[in-house]
Amino acid sequence: MFDGYDSCSEDTSSSSSSEESEEEVAPLPSNLPIIKNNGQVYTYPDGKSGMATCEMCGMVGVRDAFYSKTKRFCSVSCSRSYSSNSKKASILARLQVTGKPPTKKAKVLQKQPLVAKLAAYAQYQATLQNQAKTKAGNSVSVEGFSWGNYINSNSFIAAPVACFKHAPMGTCWGDISENVRIEVPNTDCSLPTKVFWIAGIIKLAGYNALLRYEGFENDSSLDFWCNICGSDIHPVGWCAASGKPLVPPRTVQHKYTNWKAFLVKRLTGAKTLPPDFSQKVSESMQYPFKPCMRVEVVDKRHLCRTRVAVVESVIGGRLRLVYEESEDRTDDFWCHMHSPLIHHIGWSRSIGHRFKRSDITKKQDGHFDTPPHLFAKVKEVDQSGEWFKEGMKLEAIDPLNLSTICVATIRKVLADGFLMIGIDGSEAADGSDWFCYHATSPSIFPVGFCEINMIELTPPRGYTKLPFKWFDYLRETGSIAAPVKLFNKDVPNHGFRVGMKLEAVDLMEPRLICVATVTRIIHRLLRIHFDGWEEEYDQWVDCESPDLYPVGWCQLTGYQLQPPASQSSRESQSASSKQKKKAKSQQYKGHKKKRKMPVGKKPVSLSSLPMTGGVRRSFSGDEELTPPPYRTLPAQTALEAFPPPSTSREFRPSLKTVTTSQLKEELLDGEDYSFLQGASDQESNGSATFYIKQEP
């Protein structure tokens, strides 16, 4: 709709009323501006000149934004519809725009003078404004969290979307950055229908962008945040192709007399989103896992074994799994579809992992096994040569206290490179707290890793010879350290920096996704801090963990985001934890800490339902917690074969550059845009290694 930006030339000839008008036009009020054009007098009730009304749909808008040289229609679709449909519904608009006398059919329909109709429109606009003011005055202030306000008020920086390969658009974000132009809804407008205008990105924070309308230059008074992947965000040229009107914001409407020339100057050479951006967003949010699929997942009560669970719902790639034996479907577990905690049916038997057999002898109606190719693949390893052996020592993240890295021992070597790990000094007698890690897991480290990287290593419980020395401990226990060369030393070019904001899963309460910060980076290992909480609740997480998400992910997928905890919430939770700790002995005798259950935090659900039940929790945080019912996303009517999840950068769109010739042509013709291919400034992932020294 760009060809409507020809400047409006005003005729200074005297005004005259229509000769065939049935009623005499009343004198014009002195407080309304008068525009003389083609011998017809126009007055505009909003006090602004240059307004027009579409002859087809009757929409009132800025004349410069209207379609065609005569400014008779608001869009291409209205122009085409007018030529083929009846004109009866647009007689008044035709009188206002063209100044031509009505036809005989029009005379029958025109029963009110022009000024009377304009006055009615003015009254209608005033009513809308009064209703808006009343609504704003009576609205109850709801305490909510806004990423935009949080980032602006503290000058925070968010982790780029490209850091999260598993998130929507994570592998095809391209070089979207500041100064990219997009078409967005114009909220600074009093028109009753949705209109659009062009805005530029001032600041990026994950999926969210701080935008400023074109024409405001250095004026930030109307800057606003929005999600770039939202349905109302389009590349420049979308309005022209879709027949949507582009209307300048009311605040700067009179700043320029020729908006077409202004846009040509501002947009020439600028970058915009790829034409198929919205399509790629939609495709990246299609998930192969569906409700009723059966999987094997870690037993949250006995970490050393797996159980069969059924996919209950899928939100943004996160699965709510219900253990198959749960009759009331409340015994659930949340994880991402690429989590290393879930596997295909038969996985445990194939590698020799412990498995809890289900009491259910046959599958329930509608349940079916998930195809094995949908699960995340692990790196193949060669176990024929030098390999891990039972009794070898290493360092590992405690799965029951993710803020610590502990002294650990390999308790069992499984097939396909999997290992059963136990935390020294904290193991249960029956080995029920052993945890399965793959040999390439970023959560296990060679002896000396913490010392080299200045991380506090948690010694075995009851070990009194402090400070802890690996050389002494290996000699005292008669053990050997696992060879350094067997560990995963690849470090991708992940892009995270200390201080970056993101949304992270509280892995001790895996239903909760919280506002978080990267506080430390050790090669590929990230220290995640939950804003508003003490450091004891921090978690060590791999840079490629599927439990980390860009800012704005919860808003995009409909997941509930937990805001930073207030001081009162922390104090209340701390006091409650201390009382319960005194009154109850813990079954797990290791380093497990009482995890947070913040006051005011709700379980993740698309419905605002209260949480009931107790608060005892361990690995999953909800052994005796009875969660509320969850809204189940509708299942597909037909389940076809799904392709395996891909982590490669198969699609990397670059932003499109608008050239002068293209822009001028599109401003005149209003046809589809064809942008030049731009260069992407993203580099492929690199690799690095870390050095570990060992004492003899």
Task: Tell me about this structure.
Residues 566-577 have a biased composition (Low complexity). This is MBT domain-containing protein 1 isoform X2. With 696 residues, the chain is an alpha+beta fold. A hairpin with a 2-residue loop joins strand 13 and strand 14.
SS field, number of helical segments: 14
Task: Specify the biggest β-sheet.
Answer: 7 strands, mixed
Mean pLDDT, nearest integer? 74
Separation of termini?
Answer: 75 Å
Number of strands: 34
What proportion of the residues form beta strands (DSSP E)? 15-25%
Q: Give the helix level as a range of percent.
A: 10-25%
The helix/strand class is alpha+beta
Low-pLDDT segments, ≥5 res: 1-49, 86-117, 132-143, 578-653, 664-696
Shape: elongated
Query: What's the alpha carbon Rg, rounded to whole Å?
Result: 32 Å
Main location: nucleus
Subcellular location: Nucleus
InterPro entries: Mbt (IPR004092), PcG_chromatin_remod_factors (IPR050548), Znf_FCS (IPR012313), Znf_FCS_sf (IPR038603)
GO molecular function: chromatin binding; histone binding; zinc ion binding
